[in-house]
Amino acid sequence: MIRINQIKISIDTVDKEAALRQAIAGKLKTDSGFEYSIIKHSIDARSKPALYHVYSVDVKTADDDLILKRSRCRQASIANLKEYSWPQGRRSDRRPLIIGMGPAGLFCGYMLAKAGCCPIICDRGLPVDRRRLSVEEFWRSGILDTESNVQFGEGGAGTFSDGKLNTLVNDRYGRNKEVLEIFVKHGAPEDILYENKPHIGTDILAGVISSMRDAMKLSGAEFRYEHKLIDIIPKRKRLVTAVFDNGEEISTDALVLAIGHSARDTFTMLYDKGVPMSAKAFAVGLRVLHPQEMIDIARYGSDYAAGILGPAAYKLTHRSSSGRGVYSFCMCPGGYVVNASSEAKHTAVNGMSLRARDSEVANSGIIVSVDERDYAGNGPLSGMEFQRELESRSYAIAKGAIPVQKYIDYKAGASLFHSIDSRGFKGMVSEADLHGILPEEVEASFLEGMEAFDRIIPGFAGEDAILAGVESRTSSPVRIHRNEHGTSEWGCIYPCGEGAGYAGGITSAAMDGIYIAEEIWKKNLI
Are 261 and 476 in contact (CB under 8 A)? Predict the structure, then answer.
């Protein structure tokens, strides 16, 4: 197989498939028959308004080595394919117990079920369809279900997000490709296999989760909803009993903790039980909303390109004068800012979009790095309590609604409020003064970053910018320690995914779930 990189085709090309085939033939200097598949697709907007599709392709010819040698194409080489393979091991009659049905828990369970291990998978929340109804009711009424919400329930926090599947994890073992192929197998669009920034969307992701669950059940997996883990009781080094809020107890020698980044009561219970963990750095800030058309013009050079390429995204970074990193997080083209709260009297926001990305509003978290220097306490849960404090302030100033404010008012410290357009929100909103939610130094870095980003995207810090608070759940505030084989000092406990501090998004969490499944299988601890 021959890999060719950097094939450019104008976005104005009518027949892209014919143009791509012609470009491949030209680079390989061959008119003989060949087959190709797209490996990566991105957009080159560096010379806007002239925009280009950029492709990497794998090409199969009658004689790859000969064709490659004759072509002398500097952009071509023999492809180094990373195929995923399940490790060697033997089946056992013991059953692993997985806590959490986010991507880490689901993919861990999926691989173990496929191997014939019949895992038991528990979550404090509801199945994804019922969960969606409870979330939509919260957005309408403001009545929060603390056990089934944007953070908790089948699918995890990523279910009500932008559904982005890109990751910066170095994929040495082919797990990334395996995750994407499983998604496609269960209903995701095939373009996620090659798009530079693959995206499913909340509406399609829910169906994918349901399909994965049905397939896992056919392989012997058991799903238990409204099962909140409240205690773990060690029996011996390789056996533990999990206790649930409904009184059920399940003993296992492979307990996977894929609990997500918002399971604060579970973090507290694990800390009290002596499971080793530590506080970790993360980031906090505010969501910023803009008209999508403004972002399209800034990124593409014109608004017509969005009709061809879809709404534009951005990724922005800045180093503040205090040394803190300021950057955009979970940018949602054509999306919504959602009330993502999971605790009573605490308000947190996140970004979400559907597959179509057609809300006409762009939003992103603009977040500032924080670490243990910013936390009031010194223990492993100090970052978690820091998050809670910010969310409590956010709740208080808007009485549980999403507090919103024009950026120009926030910057000026004005007490007067301009009228806010409620488009682009899921959940009730209330105009409020956002000053004081973030610590003073973090707020100063946020403002500095916004002004820096305005020099990159004109209008970013202008009259159309709306802020919403607070963006506090960017990643887990703790890391549950594990060794090179994926286990805690409690030898039968496997910390897993974003909540345990080993992932940052849907795909990386799913990859970590696969890694833990491999370790369980290899050790025969099931």
Answer: yes
Q: Based on the domain organization, do 125 and 183 belong to the same domain?
A: yes
Residue 116 is part of which domain span?
A: 97-278+484-523
Q: How confident is the model at residue 80 (pLDDT cuts 50, 70, 90)?
A: confident
299 & 325 share domain:
yes
Residues 15 and 30 in one domain: yes
H or E, element range at 389? helix 382-398
Identify whether 84 is part of a domain.
Answer: no
Q: If you count DSSP H runs as helices and E runs as strands, how many of each does the chain have, helices first?
A: 13, 24
298-319 pLDDT, tens digit each: 999 987 888 889 999 999 999 9
Statement: residue 374 has pLDDT above 90: yes
Same domain, 180 and 200: yes
Instruction: Grade residue 418 by pLDDT with cuts at 50, 70 and 90.
Output: low
Asked if residue 143 and residue 229 are part of one domain, the reply reads yes
With tokens 């370790």, the residue in question is 519
Point out which residues pair with 257 in neighbouring strands: 99, 495
Total domains in the chain come to 3
Q: List, edge to edge, every strand of the sheet that includes 402-406.
A: 317-319, 325-332, 361-370, 282-291, 466-471, 402-406, 429-431
414 part of a folded domain: yes
The CA–CA distances, whole Å, from 118 to 84, 89, 93, 439, 522 equal 22, 15, 9, 48, 16
Instruction: Report the alpha-carbon distance of residue 476 to residue 343 in Å, rounded.
Output: 16
Q: How far apart are CA 394 and CA 412, in angstroms?
A: 19
- Extract the runs of DSSP E, i.e. beta strands, from 73-170: 76-78, 97-99, 120-122
- The full 3-state SS of 253-311, as one line of letters, equals CCEEECCCCCCHHHHHHHHHCCCCEEECCEEEEEEEEEEHHHHHHHHHCCCCCHHHHCC
Distance CA 354, CA 335 (A): 7
Min mean pLDDT across 46-50, 207-211, 356-360 is at 46-50
Q: What is the pLDDT of residues 485-514, one digit of tens each?
A: 999 998 899 999 999 999 999 999 999 999
pLDDT at 526 over 60: no
Interval 72-81 mean pLDDT: 89
Tokens representing residue 408 in the block: 């120009």
CATH code of 33's domain:
3.30.70.2700
pLDDT at 88: 82
pLDDT number for residue 525: 44
Q: Are 272 and 285 in a shared domain?
A: no
| Residue 476, in any domain of the structure | no
- Beta pairing, strands 35-47 & 50-60: antiparallel
For residues 349-362, one letter each, b for 16 or more C-beta atoms within 10 angstroms of the residue's C-beta and e for the rest, the string is bbbbbbeebebebb
Nearest to 366 by CA among 411, 409, 329: 329
Asked if residue 290 and residue 167 are part of one domain, the reply reads no
69, 122: one domain: no
Question: For residue range 217-257, what is the model confidence (pLDDT) as tens digits?
Answer: 999 999 999 999 999 999 876 889 999 999 999 999 999 99
Whether the CA torsion 134, 138, 139, 140 is positive or negative: it is positive
